[in-house]
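Dear support,

Our group has been running a series of protein-ligand predictions, and this particular one with adenosine-5'-triphosphate is the one our PI (initials K.S.) wants archived with full inputs and outputs. We had some confusion internally about which version of the output was final, so please treat the block below as the authoritative record. The input we submitted was:
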Amino acid sequence: MDPSKFGKESERYAFLVTYYDSLAGFDREYHLLYYTFDETIEMYDVKTKRVFLKRSKYPEVALKDLYKGAIVTINSRQLKVTEYSDDFTKNNFGSKKKYTLAMIKPDGVVHMGEIIDRICKEGFQISKMKMTQLSVELAQKFYAVHKEKSFYNTLVAYMTSGPIVALELVAENAVAKWRELIGPTDCVQARQVAPNSIRALFATDKTHNAVHGSDSDENAEIESKFFFDSKGEIPATATFENCSLAIILPHIVSEKAAIGQIILDIQKYGLDISALELFSLGKTDASDFLEVYRGVTPDFQKMVLNLCSGPIIAMEVTSKQSIDVVTTLRKVCGPPDPELAQALRPDTIRAKYGVDKIRNAIHCTDLEDDGVLEVEFFFNLMQQ
Ligand SMILES: Nc1ncnc2c1ncn2[C@@H]1O[C@H](COP(=O)(O)OP(=O)(O)OP(=O)(O)O)[C@@H](O)[C@H]1O
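Confirmed final output from the archive:
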């Protein structure tokens, strides 16, 4: 037994979690209790007060995975941690993990792979992410505090000049940590005082400064709601033309390490990412999406369970060049079995980041005719 655990038999953290029951059409609430002594989890239904999960070990979910805003998967259900439900948990835990709202601005989107790589390497967890194009009204609303400033109109024109990527980032002291990483507003100053900051590396001038970060916890909450609680106001940017679908699989998203590298690998071959969003699929949605593989591969059930085992990042991949996008993306991904990929095509995504035939880092559309259909599943059906 680990001696550091002596005397902690009664140490228990309590969280309020919700699960969207798509059949019933509403959120179900549970108390989730985590016992550090034996690393077990227990869950109660808040409404009925009945046990939902008997106290048991659940090695896939560690204490470090539980913080406000996190999404964890238990029994194929995506549970969102919405609150710390007692003072002990709030005091010991709540003050540490926080989130901030980050944005890759229109001029930063060409550097999206490098910026996301940096985000992951600095230890942020991406809990939400969506590519969108701001309308004039939305940009004005987002930057309303600067309404009276001389640069307001230029700022709004810039923010509506192309797609942006909004991200909710989780870390200890997330607001300060992200603002330190992006550097000062003015890139000239950034290059002097923080030469390795994101703005020093990718910004052009005072307005075109590549990224945004909330300036307080209160504003992080307001800004995160602006993008991720907007009831359909934030449109996806998918084009549904000459496209293929790529999905970065749960083991990559939760380990954080390779998300940016995979995006860079896709962009290297003349392919563009024209829509992107982080999703947490339930078992029914995962099974619906993979329906064409039912009966075709003996691994169908395993693929479904893998796809709903944690957050995924879905992307519409297109190209401005006249290339066959589906075939090119398949080549970039490599053979489905990572072992085979390592032997035959060691530079491919699956060779580099795949673990086994199921956790093979990335899903991509197999057949040319299915490109639009697969993109529609995420960027049309799942938006409703
Ligand atoms: N003096 C200026 N001239 C031109 N544009 C400016 C100027 N000051 C700020 N901006 C633009 O307005 C944005 C919002 O300004 P703010 O003062 O809130 O800076 P910030 O907090 O560093 O940036 P952000 O809010 O985008 O994270 C800046 O990121 C920049 O794009």
